[in-house]
Amino acid sequence: MTAAAVAARVTDPEMPMLTLADLGILRAVDESADGVVVTITPTYSGCPAMQTIRDDLTAALREAGYPRVEVRTVLTPAWTTDWISAAGRDKLAAAGISPPGAAPRRAAGPVPLTLAPSRRAVSCPQCGHPDTEEIAAFSATACRSLRRCPVCREPFEHVKEI
């Protein structure tokens, strides 16, 4: 298996239903005679999962026979929830987590990080009701909120648009 295929199969420690490729943080995998260099972009600059992601990438590649692995972090361009693949969005919904809508559009330059509540209608991943209520701005991670459906009354998490 190629190094790129191995790296693409590593899962996110906070949302293990997603691979790093699904999440869109896996930017490049370069193989050479000197080893493998993997380039990733964090979902946000303070993401506490980055060290675990680096460790998991290194372990997976070494286990696959790549003894020299370097994981680099790049911050530009800044990650956006628009980078989550269609398959990743489907996996989130199947796990009962509402995937993000389109990220806010901004002019070129730095992307300000705001983890404020969504201002759009968020559909329930359980019953599909098109408008739900936010019950907590933060959930298991800072990038998710906790919501509830007024129809089926089920609580669920929503990945915030960044």
How many strands appear in the DSSP assignment? 7
Q: Summarize the biggest pleated sheet.
A: 4 strands, mixed
Total of DSSP H or I helical runs spanning 4+ residues? 4
Strands of the biggest beta sheet: in what spatial order?
4-7-6-5
Helical content band: 10-25%
User: Number of domains in the coordinates?
Assistant: 2
Low-confidence stretches: none
Question: How would you state the average pLDDT, rounded?
Answer: 91
> Globular, elongated, flat, extended or rod-shaped: what is the shape?
elongated
Strand content: 15-25%
The helix/strand class is alpha/beta
Rg, rounded, reads 17 Å
Distance between the termini: 33 Å
**Secondary-structure element pattern, one letter each:** HHEEHEHEEEE
Molecular structure report:
It contains four helices and seven strands. The chain has 162 residues and is α/β, with parallel strands linked by helices. The chain has two domains: 71 residues, GMP Synthetase, Chain A, domain 3 (2-Layer Sandwich); 76 residues, no CATH class. The strands form two sheets. The chain has a four-stranded mixed sheet. A three-stranded mixed sheet has the order 1-2-3. A hairpin with a 2-residue loop joins strand 1 and strand 2. The radius of gyration is 17 Å and the shape is elongated. 31% of the residues are buried. The model has no long low-confidence stretch (mean pLDDT 91). InterPro entries: Fe-S_Maturation_MIP18 (IPR052339), FSCA_dom_sf (IPR034904), MIP18-like (IPR002744), PaaD-like (IPR011883), Zn_ribbon_PaaD (IPR056572). This is Phenylacetate-CoA oxygenase subunit PaaJ. Pfam families: FeS_assembly_P, Zn_ribbon_PaaD.
